[in-house]
From TrEMBL:
<keyword id="KW-1133">Transmembrane helix</keyword>
<feature type="coiled-coil region">
    <location>
        <begin position="110"/>
        <end position="137"/>
    </location>
</feature>
<keyword id="KW-0175">Coiled coil</keyword>
<keyword id="KW-0472">Membrane</keyword>
<protein>
    <submittedName>
        <fullName>Uncharacterized protein</fullName>
    </submittedName>
</protein>
<feature type="transmembrane region" description="Helical">
    <location>
        <begin position="12"/>
        <end position="32"/>
    </location>
</feature>
<keyword id="KW-0812">Transmembrane</keyword>
<feature type="transmembrane region" description="Helical">
    <location>
        <begin position="38"/>
        <end position="59"/>
    </location>
</feature>
Length: 204
């Protein structure tokens, strides 16, 4: 609104400036060439026009003030008392709708967040289940590999202890380790033991 007012003032000022320059130029030319004093002829017209404009402005202000006091509005910028009375009579009604909309928006956002969290929890549970199944499969494969490779180096009891140690390693329970000893007639060699341990560690 302020920008529009500035543009209007600039345009009006430009028009008035051009008019004054044109008027002065024409008056000078007429006086020099034809000895016609344009100012003498136009002064009464200008004064009459200015007086008429000021009179119209004063009458408009007076009528606007009069009609406003009598609760009438004919294009005046002031608000009518009827509209003010209506808004003051029902302040609760005007404030009730925004509150209802805000409440609805809040409920909608909370419901969406709850739905997202439910999906997140379901996805985490799905990943954990897949991880457990994969780990169970790997451990089962390791047990089969251990029985196949180590049966010739350990007795059945010692091999069972080795399986228990593998379970403890798989679940991070190193305090449950138990010592074992290979067969005396066929002891396991260090290279074979290192190879076995490396294979187990890679899979776990």
């Amino acid at each position: 609104m302020a920008d529009n007012n500035r543009i209007s003032i600039k345009k009006t000022s430009r028009v008035l400036a051009i008019t004054c320059v044109a008027y002065t130029t024409v008056a000078t030319i007429l006086y020099d060439n034809y000895r016609i004093d344009l100012i003498a002829y136009s002064t009464p017209v200008i004064l009459g026009t200015v007086t008429a404009i000021m009179s119209c402005a004063a009458l408009q202000r007076m009528f606007c003030s009069l009609f406003t006091k009598n609760y009438l509005s004919f294009g005046c910028k002031e608000l009518s008392p009827i509209g003010i009375t209506h808004s003051e009579t029902n302040p609760d009604i005007q404030e009730e709708f925004p509150r209802t909309e805000n409440t609805t928006g809040t409920v909608s956002v909370v419901a969406q967040k709850s739905s997202y969290l439910e999906k997140y929890e379901a996805r985490i549970a799905e990943l954990e289940h897949a991880k457990k199944e994969r780990r169970t499969t790997i451990i089962s494969t390791i047990h089969d590999y251990t029985t196949y490779i180590m049966a010739e180096f350990f007795t059945k009891e010692e091999l069972e202890t080795l399986h228990e140690n593998i379970e403890a390693l798989a679940y991070g329970q190193q305090e449950l380790y138990k010592p074992i000893r290979s067969r005396e007639d066929n002891p396991i060699k260090s290279p074979a033991l290192r190879h076995f341990a490396w294979n187990i560690g890679e899979r776990l």
